[in-house]
């Protein structure tokens, strides 16, 4: 198993840049980027499903009560996807200015501030449509040669994303299967999702933000138990069911990369990423804290978040919240 993980890690690191920015032979020739039904200028994909009316409808159904924080803390030494996978820098924070020590009482005024350094895919974050591509293009037939530069993308960056306010649904797969945590590298199927929804008495609606619980965040923040290349997660058929049949607007999960790893597809090391982002225009959120929602059995809520306006970024840290709502039934 360790040899397989090492081999997968090497393949992941070696092919990631080429597959994302310049196209790669690891992708089957039949896989092509999608063209947006919202027109040639679209940069946000299925987020176009939101409207003033849809936001108002969900906000009007908010039930007074607890607000659930779905984001994790950012701190030095925290688990992340990309330092082990790609050798990216880890999250760092350093003080730039601080009060005087020892004789600080003699200061009339003190001043403190700090600087941070991080991958934009650190902690709870959203992947934008520029994050993964096929054959040198990203969502809506945008060429890397035309839209990608050293400081980000001119198309589909985090700065183009609107605030997200929509109905959210938790699908607690771990609980439905009677386990605390799904097994390592377990691939969630369509039947798993249907079984969990039936057990919860929850149904999906077009335009939902659908959040998948595997239980892995019970290990947070133990880096030894939170590894990208042995995580359970969404399978490709399940992703297709959510995106195409259920018409989910955004997906999310309590793991490092949404899908299960390592990939069983020899031609595509991240088939769910490329399918959702490049082919279907569906953004998704990773490393969500879903334990409180699961503990309280809250499966339907108003989901509210907003990416930072990081110009040209392929991802953005977020701090989403969930607020219980009255059922529409």
TrEMBL record:
<dbReference type="InterPro" id="IPR037175">
    <property type="entry name" value="KFase_sf"/>
</dbReference>
<feature type="signal peptide">
    <location>
        <begin position="1"/>
        <end position="28"/>
    </location>
</feature>
<dbReference type="GO" id="GO:0019441">
    <property type="term" value="P:L-tryptophan catabolic process to kynurenine"/>
</dbReference>
<dbReference type="Pfam" id="PF04199">
    <property type="entry name" value="Cyclase"/>
</dbReference>
<dbReference type="InterPro" id="IPR007325">
    <property type="entry name" value="KFase/CYL"/>
</dbReference>
<protein>
    <submittedName>
        <fullName>Putative cyclase</fullName>
    </submittedName>
</protein>
<keyword id="KW-0732">Signal</keyword>
<dbReference type="GO" id="GO:0004061">
    <property type="term" value="F:arylformamidase activity"/>
</dbReference>
């Amino acid at each position: 198993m360790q040899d397989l993980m090492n081999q997968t890690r090497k393949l992941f690191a070696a092919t990631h840049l080429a597959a994302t920015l310049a196209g790669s032979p690891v992708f089957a020739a039949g896989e092509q980027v999608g063209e947006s039904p919202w027109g040639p200028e679209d940069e946000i994909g299925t987020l176009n499903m939101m409207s003033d009316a849809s936001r108002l409808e969900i906000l009007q159904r908010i039930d007074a009560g607890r607000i659930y924080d779905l984001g994790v803390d950012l701190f030095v030494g925290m688990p992340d996807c990309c330092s082990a996978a790609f050798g990216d820098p880890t999250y760092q924070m350093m003080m730039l200015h601080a009060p005087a020590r020892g004789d600080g009482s003699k200061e009339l005024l003190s001043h403190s501030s700090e600087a941070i350094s991080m991958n934009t895919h650190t902690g709870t974050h959203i992947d934008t449509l520029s994050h993964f591509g096929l054959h040198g293009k990203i969502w809506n037939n945008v060429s890397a040669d035309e839209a990608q530069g050293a400081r980000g993308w001119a198309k589909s960056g985090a700065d183009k994303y609107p605030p997200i306010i929509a109905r959210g649904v938790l699908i607690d797969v771990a609980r439905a299967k009677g386990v605390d945590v799904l097994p390592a590298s377990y691939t969630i199927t369509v039947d798993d999702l249907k079984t969990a929804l039936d057990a919860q008495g929850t149904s999906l609606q077009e335009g939902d933000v659908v959040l998948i619980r595997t239980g892995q965040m019970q290990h947070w923040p133990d880096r030894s138990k939170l590894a990208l290349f042995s995580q359970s997660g969404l399978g490709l058929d399940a992703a297709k069911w959510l995106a195409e049949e259920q018409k989910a607007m955004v997906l999310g999960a309590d793991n490092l990369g949404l899908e299960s790893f390592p990939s069983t597809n020899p031609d595509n090391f991240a088939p769910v990423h490329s399918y959702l982002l490049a082919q279907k225009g569906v953004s998704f959120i990773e490393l969500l804290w879903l334990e409180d929602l699961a503990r309280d059995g809250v499966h339907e809520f108003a989901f509210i978040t907003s990416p930072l306006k990081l110009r040209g970024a392929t991802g953005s840290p977020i701090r989403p919240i969930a607020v219980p709502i009255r059922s529409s039934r």
